[in-house]
Write a structure and sequence with these properties.
Elements lengths: L1 E7 L4 E7 L4 E9 L6 E7 L2 E7 L4 H12 L6 E6 L10 E2 L2 H9 L8 H14 L5 E5 L9 H4 L5 H7 L8 H15 L8 E6 L3 E7 L2 E5 L22 H7 L5 H10 L2 H6 L4 H9 L3 H25 L4 E5 H6 L1 H8 L11 H5 L13 E4 L4 H16 L1
Parallel strand pairs: 1-6, 6-8, 9-12, 12-13
Antiparallel strand pairs: 1-2, 2-3, 3-4, 4-5, 7-8, 9-10, 10-11
This protein binds adenosine-5'-diphosphate.
Length: 387
């Protein structure tokens, strides 16, 4: 069975075609700079990369070119990444008119992501009309959170009327990490208690109890929680009002500041962690400050999630920073020996899969995430359920 996974962003389309027999990638690619003067499509297959530079005025024009590469590839189904499934879409589903309507209804909750995800779905359903299309939601994994975790302490009627609540994101990644960690630890997924820490450009942390998400740091939108590349994460909710009332900023300017000019970038001017670590090593004080703030926030959440979880099997790092930066991992866990969390410096430096020391009571793991593979697996599962 061959499954095509599509992730449509506002100016890019990523795709991977999996052979599910051995979960290998047959071909993959990315179309970028859609809507710009010159777009670029990179298609990889058989160890070779083909690059096409041409203008893609819209998503459709890029999709048409992608379809040419994937034609006659005997694809059984398409799995689409969709950011916001809201409360109604708790699981991966076959996309029909009802599902399209529900994704549309969630646009106010994900105004940047859901419209392009939806456009990708509509165009690829036209280009691949005879096979099932499945939507896999970033929010779905977190739909198991109890009400005391997902509600905000604001008037309950705002939840009832407008569905204002914590949804959580990166669910596909946290769910993949759960499966991979349970399999590494040799325990059933349904019994695993974990803290999974996704540190990429966006960042989030999840408390998993008996294989279910019971709390996560991102909220109604991906802006809440950890300090990120350019997003603020948690702040005093009065700050936006101060910026509007006393500084005279417009709501959209405040939104832009919190989403695109804050986080690591807001403190040290950069949002790429590799560069920030290099700058710090050269003595840059603001880079050092940004890292201290970043890792302290992660540590605070680890403490909070240990308190609500009780017993945990492992703390797991993933995504660009989590997978590759021994320094950041070490800083996040510094001083946690008292809770039985002990890192092995050498294993950590070598980016080994298990980086806890022999005497650590909680295992510390580093596992590369693979959201595309998780989407392909979910799609396969739905097809099999259909019979
Ligand atoms: P995205 O959320 O866009 O998928 P990634 O998961 O690829 O992002 O993470 C990107 C981040 O990972 C960037 O901040 C990048 O600097 C960081 N990163 C990648 N490799 C390293 C490394 N070796 N050391 C520190 N940070 C790294």
């Amino acid at each position: 069975m061959r499954i095509l996974v599509i992730n449509t962003g506002s100016s890019s389309i990523k795709y991977q075609l999996f052979e599910m027999k051995d979960e290998s990638v047959i071909s993959s690619g990315i179309a970028e700079k859609i809507g710009e003067e010159i777009g670029i499509l990179r298609h990889r297959e058989d160890g070779k990369e083909e690059i096409r530079k041409e203008r893609f005025p819209d998503h459709r024009s890029a999709f048409i070119l992608i379809e040419e590469y994937l034609r006659r590839k005997d694809i059984s189904a398409v799995g689409h990444r969709v950011v916001h499934g809201g409360e109604r879409l708790k699981k991966s589903v076959i996309i029909d008119e009802e599902v399209i309507k529900a994704i549309k209804e969630n646009i106010p909750l994900a105004p940047i992501h859901n419209p392009s995800n939806l456009e990708g779905i509509i165009i690829s359903k036209e280009l691949f009309p005879d096979i099932p299309h499945v939507a896999v939601f970033d929010t779905a994994f977190h739909q198991t959170m109890p009400d005391e975790a997902f509600l905000y302490s604001i008037p309950y009627r705002l939840y009832e009327r407008y569905r204002i609540r914590r949804y959580g994101f990166h669910g596909t990644s946290h769910a993949y990490i759960l499966e991979a960690s349970a399999s590494y630890l040799g325990i059933p997924k349904e019994k695993a208690n974990l803290i999974t820490i996704h540190l990429g450009n966006g960042a989030s942390i999840t408390a998993i109890k008996n294989g279910k998400s019971i709390d996560t740091s991102m909220g109604m939108t991906p802006l809440e929680g950890l300090m990120m590349g350019t997003r603020s994460g948690d702040i005093d909710p009065a700050i936006p009002f101060f910026l509007m009332d006393h500084v005279g900023l417009r709501p959209e300017e405040v939104y832009r500041i919190l989403n695109s000019e804050s986080g690591l970038r807001g403190i040290c001017g950069r949002n790429d962690m590799r560069e920030i670590i290099e700058l710090r090593e050269k003595g840059d004080r603001m880079a050092d400050l940004a890292i201290r703030m970043y890792t302290r926030r992660v540590k605070k959440y680890i403490g909070a999630y240990m308190a609500i979880l009780g017993k945990i099997d492992a703390i797991v790092f993933t995504a660009g920073i989590g997978e590759n930066s021994p320094y950041i991992r070490r800083k996040c866990l510094e001083g946690l020996d008292i809770f039985g969390i002990r890192i092995d410096k050498e294993k950590n430096r070598r980016n080994e899969k298990e980086i806890s020391s022999e005497d650590s009571s909680i295992k510390i793991l580093v596992i590369p995430t693979n959201e595309e593979l998780r989407i392909a697996r979910e799609t396969k599962k739905i097809l099999e359920e259909m019979g």
